[in-house]
Amino acid sequence: MTKHELRYAANPVDARKYGTEELRKEFLVEAVFVQDEIRLTYSMYDRYIIGGVMPVSKDLTLETIPYLKSENFLDRRELGIVNVGGKGKVTVDGKEYELNKKEALYVGQGSKEVVFSNIGEGQPLFYINSAPAHKSFPTKKVGADEAEVVQLGDEKYANKRVLNKLIVNSIVETCQLQMGLTELLQGNVWNTMPAHTHSRRMEAYFYFDLEEGQTISHFMGEPQHTRHIFMENNQAVLSPEWSIHSGSGTSSYSFIWGMAGENLDYGDMDVCAPNELR
């Protein structure tokens, strides 16, 4: 069963006036995983789609949705999948790929059938991102040992973290989709600080592995007009190209970042010094 919703893009000047309820309605995706469902949010930011797949008692097939106006979901799109739960299986046009926790699968444009399965080794939770694609590249699994790993941050600033590049152009050929996974080390709580924007790419964050009863304050907005959204485990947030995307938790956590836009240059960003934020 596939459920879907549409999110329109917001003008940054208008967003300055949003209260708590409006911010959460426009940018926060609360129910990413629902038992035996595929949940999708179609965003007008670079026509990016984020979603969750939770097969419990049956296989779940990725179906097209009305906004795409295509026979198959991937007729004009590419797809990134990261498993954040127990071991599961994804079958793409008859070929099976088993994914452990924190492993990824890139599925190229033109693939006809994508099926998500629970194989009985824990509950798989497949977090998915999709972007428009103009060319077909091969479907490819990225195991934990194939990620491009970068050590970032400093305990002095409570932001020591490990960045795992999964679906990036140095590992997988893609049209515009990029995805990775960042893990905060124990006792560190800040992500993406110093904060930045990138005017040629939007981004989406998905927070997971957050201790029960804890919270993350996700910071967004223009650097001189910031806002915050309190988030729980297994929730996602959309980040427009004009917005920073940073957060701090009341305990350690992990998050998946996904991007689409005009280029594949990971370093294309405008950094904002911490003491310049407002």
Automatic annotation (TrEMBL):
Protein purpose: Catalyzes the isomerization of 5-dehydro-4-deoxy-D-glucuronate to 3-deoxy-D-glycero-2,5-hexodiulosonate.
- Entry binding sites for Zn(2+): H196, H198, E203, H245
Protein name according to UniProt:
4-deoxy-L-threo-5-hexosulose-uronate ketol-isomerase
Q: In which pathway does it act?
A: Glycan metabolism; pectin degradation; 2-dehydro-3-deoxy-D-gluconate from pectin: step 4/5
Classification lineage = Bacteria, Pseudomonadati, Bacteroidota, Flavobacteriia, Flavobacteriales
Supply the alphabetized keyword list: Isomerase, Metal-binding, Zinc
The reply to whether Oxidoreductase figures as a keyword in the UniProt entry is no
Q: Which residues cross the membrane?
A: none
Q: Which organism is it from?
A: Maribacter polysiphoniae
HAMAP family cross-referenced by the UniProt entry: KduI (MF_00687)
Q: Which InterPro entries match?
A: KduI, KduI/IolB_isomerase, KduI_N, RmlC-like_jellyroll, RmlC_Cupin_sf
Q: Which reaction does it catalyse?
A: 5-dehydro-4-deoxy-D-glucuronate = 3-deoxy-D-glycero-2,5-hexodiulosonate
One BP term from GO = pectin catabolic process
Cofactor binding: number and manner: Binds 1 zinc ion per subunit.
**What does the record give as EC number?**
5.3.1.17
